[in-house]
Amino acid sequence: MDTPLSFESWQGDEEEHSVTWSQRIILECRCGEGVILLGLEADWRTEKRDAFECECGETLSIASNRVDETAFSVKQLLRRGHEATFGA
Ligand SMILES: [Zn+2]
Q: How many angstroms is it from 1 CA to the middle of ligand 1?
């Protein structure tokens, strides 16, 4: 009996590339809104951009308004919870 040739074996060693391009920076405003910057902080520094306007008109900067993404998400969830409570 002939052994069938496998044409699929070459596909076996695809490498998983660790993706870092999805990194982002979150700036939180006093009004509770957030501005999300896509990319690395170093990239924004290179662009000499460190002033971002919130929807309320407040100027945010990476240096003073940056927040941890996890913390911000939790705040947003809490905030939505409040809104739901008030709307009931
Ligand atoms: Zn704001």
A: 74
